[in-house]
Write a structure and sequence with these properties.
alpha/beta, Rossmann fold, six-stranded mixed beta sheet, globular
């Protein structure tokens, strides 16, 4: 579904991403690890099309089409949804107004919307300003809920588990899994939508299954592998050890051929 080819990105004249290659097949959810300043959020913001992030080289393909020149609105209409790490406070705008607008545009989804409001206990937030006076966990929860109701084909989450207490994290995990469900799926085979999750702590991985992990360091993806194993390596010995370990495994495989 998503393919990134040799992507170079500048922000305020400085190159942040220096040749990203990444493929996320349809129905897979990948996780992106990396220290602060490595370029993780830059990659996500570039995929969704924020104008401050200038693509100087390479391509972003979505469903086989190059979307590098499309604006945010056009990419959102294609089905790309993003949950920011620190969504802004919007004074004077109530969550109820956003949901009413959604229902007006999608009257056939009214029952679904009401069911999701009840399932995730959203009613108590409906008449409060967006993200005003909420805890970190509540902000994440409501941000994800707004993404959920848009039914995105491709979901991107920036640090959904940072600053979140254990109780809220369970709910956030449930909302993420709901976002990834394929509605009205009558096939016996379990299928999901496609996604990319950025996380430092890896706590979200206790609630959301991911298929593959990537390590981004200094603007380049250095290695990819099993999410659980990579996270264990990073926690025990750091990012650079993870890279060297992956390289060692690769060298051993080459020697065996």
């Amino acid at each position: 579904m998503l393919e990134i080819r040799n992507l170079h990105v500048n922000v305020e004249g400085k190159e942040i991403l220096g040749g990203i290659n990444l493929t996320i097949p349809n129905g897979e959810v990948h996780v992106l690890f990396g220290p602060n300043g490595s370029g993780k959020t830059t990659l996500m913001m570039t995929i969704i099309g924020y104008p401050e992030y200038k693509v100087t080289k390479g391509q972003i393909l979505f469903d086989g089409n190059n979307i590098s020149e499309l604006d945010i609105t056009e990419r959102a209409k294609l089905g790309i949804g993003v949950s920011q790490q620190r969504p802004p406070t919007i004074k004077g705008v109530k969550l109820r107004q956003i949901l009413d607008f959604f229902t007006k545009l999608n009257p056939s989804k009214k029952d679904y919307l009401n069911a999701m409001v009840k399932k995730f206990d959203i009613s108590k937030y409906l008449d409060r300003d967006i993200n005003s006076g909420f805890s970190g966990g509540e902000i994440k929860r409501l941000e994800l809920f707004q993404i959920l109701i848009t039914l995105p084909k491709f979901l991107m989450l920036d640090e959904p588990d940072s600053g979140v207490d254990p109780e809220q994290l369970v709910i956030i995990g449930d909302i993420v899994n709901e976002c990834l469900k394929i509605k009205n799926n009558t096939k016996l085979k379990i299928e999901r939508k496609t996604g990319l999750i950025i996380t430092h702590s890896g706590n979200i991985l206790n609630y959301v299954h991911t298929d593959k992990a990537h390590l981004l360091l200094d603007g380049v993806i250095h290695c990819s592998g099993n999410p659980g194993l990579m996270l264990d390596q990073i926690k025990k010995a750091g990012y650079n050890y993870c890279i060297s370990c992956q390289q060692l495994c690769y060298d051993h495989m080459q020697e065996g051929n």
